[in-house]
Amino acid sequence: MxxxxxxxxxxxxxxxxxxxxxxxxxxxxxxxxxxxxxAIVVSGDPNDYIVNPGNGFDxxxxxxxxxxxxxxLCSGSLxxxxxxxxxxxxxxxxxxxxNITNGATAxxxxxxxxxxxxxxxxxxxxxxxxxxxxxxxxxxxxxxxLASAAPEAAQRYDIYRNTxxxxxxxxKVGYGLSGQGNQGFNPRQYPFGVKRSGQNVYEFLGENLDPxxxxxxxxxxxxxxxxxxxxxxxxxxxxxxxxxxxEVNTAAGDSGxxxxxxxxxxxxxxxxQCFFNTINFECFSPPDVDNIGNFSFGEFSGDTxxxxxASYIDDVLAGKVTPTSKVPExxxxxxxxxxxxxxxxxxxxRKAKEKV
Length: 356
Known about the structure:
Elements: E1 7-11, E2 16-22, E3 38-42, E4 60-67, E5 70-78, E6 84-87, E7 101-110, E8 113-124, E9 142-146, E10 169-174, E11 179-180, E12 184-185, E13 196-201, E14 204-205, H1 206-209, E15 218-222, E16 248-252, E17 258-261, E18 264-275, E19 300-305, H2 310-317, E20 325-326, E21 333-336
Parallel strand pairs: 3-11
Antiparallel strand pairs: 1-2, 2-18, 3-16, 4-5, 4-7, 5-6, 6-9, 7-8, 8-9, 8-20, 8-21, 10-13, 10-17, 11-12, 14-15, 15-19, 17-18, 18-19
């Protein structure tokens, strides 16, 4: 599946630049998979950002999604009901917003082992139209209802309902590919399936950077190296040099994963971007560290703003929303001590320039 670039002009003091969405729709990494998700790309050594079971993020899950296009891998987070996983709609749909998922399993990494629970119902935000039309983008949100309650050891997370996210330090968690900021993601050395976390700061609402984004739908953050040269939003008038070694970006495999403010889910990983040249489609450097859309320093990403969709989430958990689809034979919970069934193929393909 290919993902479109959207192009909108923005002026900086140096030149007119173009914003390019480099979209992954989840980390499509499968036995024969595209890419659809995102993972954490970090400022330091990726091994220093690993989250082990029992450290407060056991309710952040990896998702195995069986679709008409193959098996996709994404991330998600357990909501207060203990039966619902919040994730990104694009993990479950095609590029036009149509559901293509016919089976899904959430995997919990706990101190006692790995547990998988199948999904019974899928709820896709009704106004989600996919990435095909960035003139009215928003609503990249979905909820999976599990066939049985999650283990008690898995933390449940409430959602962030305030609208003061801009400027706040947030914590991102996901299972996607990883790598170091100077080079971007490295699927061979840091494959999907390892939970990592790090921090960033929301600096923009999506519509402030691109008028086509629906109001209040997207929270944006850039990936700073600490140098003004790689400060993407500094080029559009919002200078900030980041959080040092704590700073991370999301990448393939993290899609649907949570961003926390004060322990509450404030964002859902959605997409990534760079400012790119419309002639050769390379990322502008500066700010990008290497001219390539690979979640490296100088690129930026967008999360679905959870506070905007709080009432929809509440209604799903209260049983007031009809499922988008039901998943057949959902009643199995099982423990795993290996992850072989979800091994990421070294042959995974990237059909378009990436996103977060």
